[in-house]
Amino acid sequence: MDFKRRISDYIDSAREEMISDLRTLVRIPSVMGEAKENMPFGERTAEALNAALEICEKSGFSVHNTDNYVGTADFFPDKENYLGILCHMDVVPEGNGWSVPPFELTEKDGKLIGRGAIDDKGPAIAAIYAMKAIKSLGIPIKKNVRLIIGTNEENGSADLEYYRKREELPTLLFTPDGSYPVINIEKGMLRMSLTQKITDSRLENLSAGIAVNAVPETAEAVISGVGLQAAENAAERLSLPVKVSFLEENGRIKMSVLGKSAHASTPESGENALAAALAVLSALGITEARALAELFPYGETDGLSCGIKCSDEISGETTTVLSMAEVEDGSLICRQDIRFPVCESCGGIIARLTETAGAKGIRVFADMKSEPHSVSAESEFVKTLLEVYEDVTGERGYPVAIGGGTYVHDTENGVAFGAEFPDEDNNMHGADEFIKEENLLLNAKIYANAILRLCEKE
Q1: Which 3-state string (H, E, C) describes 303-340?
Q2: For the whole model, what pTM was predicted?
Q3: What's the pLDDT tens digit per position in 240-285?
Q4: 90 counts as catalytic
Q5: Among the options 21, 153, 154, 371, which is catalytic?
Q6: Catalytic pick from 21, 47, 74, 90?
């Protein structure tokens, strides 16, 4: 029978119902809040979880709520968990710049706009209706599908950690919390602190960055014992592609640098204001700046100078960014974000950085460690998902390695499968976040066909 056509027709017919259910979820501002009894991440995340489980239950699935950390919906509750689909109901704060109310689903120009529309409430609705299509059409599958709905993906995934202490994850697992075709490799990640005693009294202050996982857009330094003309000449000689300005006041020089922000997983697309500030300070002979400028030359993002450069064919090369700086108790403290390929380990990277930085009098500390995540592109699981993607969309399927992390990063067998399409920008985490109406339906069709292909045989 032509299951693909029947699935497509069913999901098209469910368009208004899907949008209505997504509207229900978007209306709940499920930003992490204060923990309360039986509400570990606040009232709103628990409310959103229960609203999603109600949608699953009315769709005919067996649901269970694990202490408002995680909810599940099973196709065959009495069978072994074979395929898991991992979504989440928590969202990031709305922020500024919206043209429509962030917690109301607005339909405009073929877009469904609202916080969570693409991350991750829209994809969750697509997964629910994928399961519902197969159940409603009576399409025979032999293995259980479990939808796993979390509540803390945006703030550390403590929900999944809690759940995994009580339940084993399914044999196969994908999350619609990334992009197509299939993300099967996620680089390892380190967040480091670098500390250096200030011995050069001319450096009175240096500050930069607002997040460790972002290229810093601005940096400021206050120095003494240096003339305004000398500072301007040093910056001019470097000819850096950032805006550097100076202000002389009470015998001190305040330097301001304006660069361009970017995510730490793609630092080459930014202009690092901190690295630029260090280059200027180094040119002025500031001791502490010279050491850091040698480790992090402006424009270098592969970790060569700090001794951590490495690469492999399947996951690419190391990327790193010196992202934050502050002066505290007579020390200059910087933060560094590192994304490294599967050929290395956290221990190996830390050892190499410690040796290189230590030789310049800089101490390093690991604030966060996450080993690389990899599922073979030759596995039947990945190959099947790619075949489904090609069959439903008509586009070429291929495995993808990323520098960021998804909801499945700390699982053994998980991959990201959607929900964003290649070269698509849905304003995730930004103002006017959206999912195209046609892509909400297309995601559901892809997931339904994936369920069918993966679960049709014993």
Answers
A1: CCCCCCCCEECCCEECEEEEEEEEEECCEEEEEEEEEE
A2: 0.84
A3: 999 999 999 888 999 999 999 888 888 998 999 999 999 999 999 9
A4: yes
A5: 153
A6: 90
